[in-house]
Amino acid sequence: MSVVVVNPSASDDYFRFFGVEQKFNLDLPALDQAYLAIQKEVHPDRHARGSDTEQRLAMQMATLANTAFQTLKNPIQRGLYLCQLHGVDARLETNTAMPAAFLMKQMEWRESLEDQDEDLGALEALAEEVDQSKRNTLVEITQAIDGAKNFERAAELLRGLLFIDKFALELDDAISALV
Known about the structure:
By secondary structure, the protein is mostly helical. It is built from 7 helices and no strands.
């Protein structure tokens, strides 16, 4: 039995690997369908009786499919990947500079969390505000990447979205502690 390789030359572009359009506003059901089809073809169990080379290739393709799928399924990882494909490094480790208005909003949220850590209603209202901010940021990222092809701006927005997501997790923990 020989390994059916989807398109190994597409391994340098996860979108091409799955045969989906290279954009931030991704058709997630199409991604899911492509992933399942590839996994069905390259699953190591399917090639258990193949040669060592076929088994190794099947394992490599299954691993690539998993990595590519996880990257494209997550909006932040997908956005960072698109930036990378277009030569923009978000420099997450070194570039923490954010616009003043964004930083002020973050401080305001943190103060609200600290001041209202026993008030479930207030925390739920704050969670809705944070969720709306996340949705708005995702719209801006979509416009920056799919519309304007401004990957520098997208990287800045993605760095902000990482902050929002981190705060949202802390907020969820605070709410869970009260429920």
